[in-house]
Amino acid sequence: MTLRIDIGGLPAGRLRFAASPLAELTAMLHVLAEPGHHPQFADWAGEVWAGMRPELAERLREADFLWRSSQADFLLPARPRPTLVEELDEVDRIRDEPYVTAALVTTCGSNRVRFGARSPLTDGAARERALDLAQARGVRQEAFAERLLADPAAVRARVRDTLEQCAEAFFDAAWADVAVRLATDLRVKNDLLRREGVGTALASVSGAVSLAPEGDCIVVDKLLDKATAAHGTGVTFIPSVFGSPHLAVVHAPGWQPVVQYPVAGPSPSEPVSLETVTLRLEALSHPVRLRLLRTLARGPHTTRELAHAWELSPPEVSRHLAVLRRAGLLTARRRGRYVRYTLNLPDLTALGPDLLAAVLR
C-alpha cells in the first residue's frame, strides 16, 4: 500500500526542503493531544499542560480535531515562511471552501472523508453528510462542525488567535530549541539534492520514501493506496522534531503535495513475552487488520466508520476487530448507541519501533 506523487516533467527546483514554524507548531499540538504517540516528549507535554492558562487549554481541546488524528491540510504550508505570523497570514488567504472542507475532513475523523466538488458551505446534502459524520464522532465534533459551517470567518479567526496564543505560551521557546536541529537537517538534505539528485535526497528522508525506478514518481509507504500529482506546483518536504515517528502527507485534490518527515526516530520499545509477541503478530498478519489499525491510530472509531473508511461490510470489520481484541491490541467502549474501538498504543509499541512507525505514519 503506497501513496504516489507524480513528479513527471517537474523542474528540479520545484522539489524543495524547508522548515515551517506552523507545521512544527501543529506537530507540538498533536503531541499535546496524543502524548501516547510520543513517549519521548511526555515530560515536555506535562510541563506545557501544567503551565497553560485554563482558557487556552479549553481552546485547544475545542479545536484539537484539526491536529489530533491528522493535520488539516492548511496547517502544513506548501510554501513555508520564516515566521509563524507570515504563515498564518498565508492561511488567511485561503478561500473558505477549501479551508472548511479540510477542517471537516479531520473533524469527521478520517482523511478518507471527501466531499468531491460539493462544498458543505453551499450544498445541502454535503452539509448534512458532514454534520452526520461529525455527530458520530462525538458531541464536541458536532458542535465544532456546526459553528464552522454557520460562521466560518469567526471560527477561522478564533483558530488563528488560539495558535498565536500558543506561540506565547510554549511554541516560541520550543521553536528556538528545535530550529537549529531543523536547519542542520535541511543543510544535509539540500546538499544531497544538489550533489546526488532526487533519489538520494528522498532516501535520506525516510526508509518509507523513495523515487520510483522510472524517476517520475515519489513513492511513500503508507497504509493507504492513493495518488496525487505535483504538476505545476512542486513538492515540499518539511522536517519535524516533534512529529516523530509520523510521516504526514498532504495529498488531497487541489492542494500542493507536502511531506512532513521526522528528523529523529522513535524511542526504543520495551521487551514483551514471546507468547504475547506471537499472538499479536498472528493478529497482524492480515492486511485488512493492518489497515484498521492505521485508522484506529488516528482515534477511536465505530465498526460502521471503519467499514465506510475501507469500503468493507460491517460484519467483516467486526470479525477482524474481534481478532485484534483477543490479541489485546484494542479496547471497546460504549458511548450511547455507539461502540468505539481504541488502539492500545503501549501494547503495539511493545512489538517494536518499526511496526509502530509503520502504523503511525
List the helices and strands and how they pair.
Blueprint: E1 2-6, E2 15-17, H1 21-33, H2 42-51, H3 54-63, H4 84-92, H5 96-107, H6 124-137, H7 139-150, H8 152-196, H9 198-205, E3 209-211, E4 217-221, E5 226-229, E6 235-240, E7 248-250, E8 258-262, H10 274-283, H11 287-296, E9 301-302, H12 303-310, H13 314-326, E10 330-335, E11 338-343, H14 345-349, H15 353-360
Parallel strand pairs: 1-5, 2-6, 6-8
Antiparallel strand pairs: 1-4, 3-4, 7-8, 9-11, 10-11
Query: Could you estimate the helical fraction of the residues in percent?
Result: 40-55%
* Proportion of residues in extended strands: 5-15%
Shape: globular
State the secondary-structure class: alpha/beta
Number of helical runs?
A: 15
Biggest β-sheet strands, sense, barrel:
4 strands, mixed
Detail the poorly predicted runs.
265-271
**What would you report as the Rg, rounded to the nearest angstrom?**
20 Å
Strand order of the largest sheet: 3-4-1-5
Order of secondary-structure elements: EEHHHHHHHHHEEEEEEHHEHHEEHH
Q: Tell how many strands the DSSP assignment holds.
A: 11
Mean pLDDT, rounded to whole units? 88
Task: Give the N-terminus to C-terminus distance in angstroms.
Answer: 13 Å
